[in-house]
Design goal:
Blueprint: E1 4-5, E2 10-13, H1 14-19, E3 30-36, E4 43-53, E5 56-64, E6 71-82, E7 88-93, E8 102-103, E9 105-109, E10 112-114, E11 121-122, H2 138-147, E12 152-153, E13 156-157, H3 159-182
Parallel strand pairs: 1-11
Antiparallel strand pairs: 2-9, 3-4, 4-5, 5-6, 6-7, 7-8, 9-10, 12-13
Helix pairs in contact: 2-3
């Protein structure tokens, strides 16, 4: 049996929750997250609510199972770890009874919400042959260039622009490598 690819599944990420201010305030926040299937255009969504009960934080996820229409609700424990320079980092505790690992991302497969290991998932990049990982495609370059807001800030290249230049060098090296092998 082949593994499912994590990049193409519905997921809830701690970074997203932090960026959208779900952890701010005494009682947390609620909202909605929407996923769009790139092939069919079908949209699925889940209602999220972060709340604090007896000095413990929980994420409540309410979603409908794709195709079946049955509603599922889950209560997921959140934990924190201290950061080196102050503050704290939030983590999910995997809700499956046999796991309980700290993770930054939980995946929704069917009716189950769990970490990557419990769902036995892989990443798309792990399925590429190692020799082809260094090649960069033209759409990759265009995607990175679209992310660049400003090329320079105070006469220094921005991080996004530096990443684009790095990909451009890898792209050119790949083109030159193909040209050498054809002669």
């Amino acid at each position: 049996m082949s593994k499912l690819i994590a990049d193409k599944l519905k997921k809830v990420n701690v970074t997203f929750l932090k960026r959208e201010s779900y952890f701010s305030g005494m009682y947390g926040r609620s909202g909605k997250i929407t996923w769009t299937n790139s092939l069919s255009g079908q949209q699925d969504n889940a209602h999220l609510k972060v709340s604090k009960i007896d000095n413990e934080m929980y994420l409540y996820v309410s979603h409908y199972i794709t195709g079946g229409g049955e509603k599922r609700e889950r209560k997921i424990l959140l934990t924190t770890s201290p950061c080196n320079y102050g503050g704290e980092r939030y983590w999910f505790v995997c809700p499956t009874p046999y796991c309980g690992k700290r993770t930054g991302t939980l995946y929704i497969v069917g009716e189950h919400i769990a970490c990557r290991h419990c769902h036995n998932l892989t990443y798309d990049s792990r399925n590429e042959a190692r020799r082809y990982r260094r090649f960069v495609s033209s759409p990759d370059l265009d995607e990175q260039l679209a992310k660049v807001g400003y090329a320079y800030y105070r006469n220094k290249p921005t991080k996004k622009y530096a990443r684009y230049l790095q990909l451009l060098d890898r792209f050119n090296m790949g083109i030159m490598g193909m040209c050498k092998s054809t002669y």
